[in-house]
Amino acid sequence: MADHPGLTAESLRKLLVANGVDVVGDLKIDLISGGRSNLTFDVRDDEHHWVARRPPMGGLTPSAHDMEREWAVTSALADTDVPVAGTVAIDRAGDIIGAPCAVVEFVDGLVIRSTDDLKVWSDDQVGANFDALVRTLANLHAVDYNAVGLGEFGRPEGFAGRQVKLWARQWGLVKTRELPDVDTLVAKLTDRVPAQARSTIVHGDFRVDNTIIDRDDPTTVKAVVDWEMAALGDPLTDAALMCVYHQPVFAKVLGFEAAWTSDRYPDEDAMAQAYAAATGMDLGDWDFYLGLANLKLGVIAEGITHRALAGGSSGADGAEQAAEATASFIAAGLNAVS
Question: Could you tell me which of 25, 52, 235 has the C-alpha nearest to residue 136?
């Protein structure tokens, strides 16, 4: 296709040229399926291959679709042990595209989204892929964020407490019905925010389908993608979210049988222990982190339905039903902290 309502060839050409990119021939733009947050596009001219991302077209919540955040982190990580796509162009304020937009180099490889996608690997290969993913997350949390120029990226102190407040506010913006257990979970989490925590770069959305894997080697992560919720903060929030994503109910959020929920991957306890072993970190008040992760996913699930009802779905089927998972996540969060 030549154009999409969220990204036209004319505006994208202007953005690329403004960033010093030589566009050769016509631009071809295709919406990449499978996204439930930012809109992601495959972009080509006669010589180049890129990926462009912009926020959904309706039902936005603050900070959840931050192009500048993605751009800053991926630029900073370019020369580290964390694989990322090379940055190409950015429209920070949306003056050219009509919304903030970032363009990065295309990275060829496998994106393992569904349990069907996972069939390309044997059980041993799935296990080896998990080990590689945990090593990648550990490498991210080992990066000296001051050394890579991210010292002013955010305020890592008090991150977990601010996350509780953030997702409580997000709930007020996206809720499609009243669910008192959300307030109960927020109150319990507020009472047990850890007093001390390490500070690292956190991805905020880490699981297998937010990576690109080498086509011939499941142990090689070629790029970590979807950095719009990255921050400086408590690395255990990343680790707990990785584990909570493994719950079967997450399939309702994505609208298909998600690869990361497959029982071919280790269970949540084994995931947590693998992370602790890879990093040498104590898991601290792990129940708090599990409760927070469940709160976050419950609000995200609700937000997907909120956007769909507002006409801002990214195109995936079944978005109106994503909120069916919210109560399950909130219940799991309460179970963790009670």
Answer: 235
Rounded to 10 degrees, what is the CA torsion of 104, 64, 300, 263?
A: 30
The answer, as to whether pTM is greater than 0.85, is yes
List the chain domain ranges.
Answer: 9-105, 117-337
pLDDT digits (tens, 9 = 90+) for 75-117: 999 999 999 999 999 999 899 999 899 999 999 999 999 999 9
Does residue 47 sit in helix, strand or coil? Answer: coil
Amino acid at 96: I
> Where are the alpha helices (H) located in the chain, listed in sequence order?
9-18, 67-76, 123-142, 159-174, 180-191, 235-244, 250-254, 268-279, 286-309, 326-337
Residue matched to tokens 């042990």: 81
| Residue written as token pair 């469940």 | 294
DSSP notation for 310-337: TT---S-TTGGGGGGGHHHHHHHHHHHH
Q: Which long-range contacts (CB under 8 A, 24 or more apart) does 49-53 make?
A: 49/105, 49/106, 50/88, 50/103, 50/104, 50/105, 50/106, 51/85, 51/103, 51/104, 51/105, 51/106, 51/107, 52/7, 52/12, 52/101, 52/102, 52/103, 53/101, 53/102, 53/103, 53/104, 53/228
Class of the CATH domain delimited by 117-337: alpha beta
Output the pLDDT for position 3: 67
DSSP state of 4: B
**217: CB partners within 8 A, 6+ apart:** none
Q: Smallest Cα–Cα separation from 213: which of 83, 81, 111? A: 111
Instruction: Tell me the per-residue pLDDT of 300-309, one tens digit each, with 9 for 90 and over.
Output: 999 988 888 8
The fold of 9-105 is Phosphorylase Kinase; domain 1 (3.30.200)
Distances (CA, A) of 310 to 39, 58, 130, 299, 329: 16, 6, 37, 16, 23
pLDDT tens for residues 220-264?
Answer: 999 999 898 899 999 999 999 999 999 999 998 888 899 999 999
